[in-house]
Amino acid sequence: MRLLLSILFAITAVLYYNQEYMFSRIAQLSKQIRPFTHNILSNSTRTMSTNGPSTTFHGLPVIPPSETFTTTAPRKIQKSFLAVEQSEGAGARVRRSIGTPQLKNFSPFLMLDHFAVPPGAGFPDHPHRGQETITYLMSGAIDHEDFAGNKGTIQEGDLQFMTAGRGIVHAEMPAQNTDGSPNVGMQLWVDLPKELKYTEPRYRDLRAKEIPEATADDGKVKVKVISGLSYGVESAKELAYTPVWLLDFKVQPGGTVKQSLPKGWNAFAYTLSGTTIFSSDGVSRPIEQYHNVVFDKEGDSIEASVEAGAEGEANFILVAGLPLDQPIVQYGPFVVNSRDEVMQAMMDYQSHSNGFERALNWESEIGKTMVH
Question: Taking every annotated instance into account, which residue ranges of this chain make up the domain Pirin C-terminal (predicted)?
Answer without folding.
Answer: 247-354
